[in-house]
Amino acid sequence: MSSPHVSDEILIESRASLRQSLKLSELWNYRELIYFLSLRDIKVRYKQAVFGVAWVIAQPLFTVLTYTFLFGKVAKMASDGLPYSVFVFSALVPWTYFISALNKGSMSLVGSGALFSKVYFPRLVIPLAAVLSSLLDYAISFLCMVLVLAFYGIYPRWSWLLGVPVVTFWIFVLSSGVSFWLGALNVKYRDVGHIIPFVVQIWMFATPILYSISVIPQRFQMWINLNPMFGLIEAYRSVIFAREIDWSSTGISLVLTLLVFVTGSIYFAKTERSFADII
């Protein structure tokens, strides 16, 4: 009769360790749940949309046209020798995925409170499913970008087969880590949901999407490396336009991405027990 109690105590202690508290290995057992929650998010998003996928195509195109007119034609922003619309589109596609995943992942817990009291599953499943569901919109936007690039005589390269998925994966990791942080904080402090749009706007202008890094004075360029999306956006552009990757800025972005992901997972694991009571 005593052995089951010993086994239970060992289980509790193992979960208290740093490695187990992340519960990342446990997510594999719930991979089907992640898939179905992602599929549910996609169906809900398009179910009542009259134009459906057309909105996903129209949004980046109109955004690029607007930015091209304001910053390319009027402000005459530098674009590294590329047509400004191409320059912006190549960064806007990964950036839009990052922001879409961040927004959905950050708000996903508040909208899923009913699930917490019904059955046990790793709570990380919810923001991960939200981040994963944004990949469909990203894929559609990517195809739009390919067509725009082809219009300017820039065609897909074999290097895209490896480079694009790798950089996209790291953007997925970063958006997941940020979603863990903001999602957990948003459960406890609902003001976070109101702050996120302001953070997103500031973050966008702190990332070289609408401008080239060359316009930033040399003494300030070292600080932009503290933005993890900087190195990822620049690496994405380098893959698309077959340029040499700046491994120093990319390496810093990868380290910062892992730091955000790990710390976000730890904070999420420490606070998830209170989610059901608060929501």
Features:
74% helix, single chain, 13 helices, mainly alpha, 279 residues, globular, disordered N terminus
Structure, described:
The protein is an all-alpha fold and 279 residues long. It has one domain. Helices cover 74% and strands 0% of the residues. Helix 8 runs antiparallel to helix 11 (228-240). The model is unreliable at 1-18 (pLDDT under 50).
What is the number of beta strands? 0
Euclidean distance between termini CA atoms:
38 Å
Overall spatial form: globular
What order do the helices and strands follow? Answer: HHHHHHHHHHHHH
**How many strands, which pairing sense, and closed or not: the largest β-sheet?**
none
Strand content: under 5%
Number of helices: 13
Provide a compact summary of the structure.
The protein is mainly α and 279 residues long. The chain has helices spanning 2-16, 18-22, 31-47, 53-74, 84-107, 113-116, 125-151, 160-188, 191-205, 218-224, 228-240, 247-271, 275-278.
Please describe the topology of this protein.
Elements: H1 2-16, H2 18-22, H3 31-47, H4 53-74, H5 84-107, H6 113-116, H7 125-151, H8 160-188, H9 191-205, H10 218-224, H11 228-240, H12 247-271, H13 275-278
Helix pairs in contact: 3-7, 4-5, 4-7, 5-7, 5-8, 5-9, 5-11, 7-8, 8-11, 8-12, 11-12
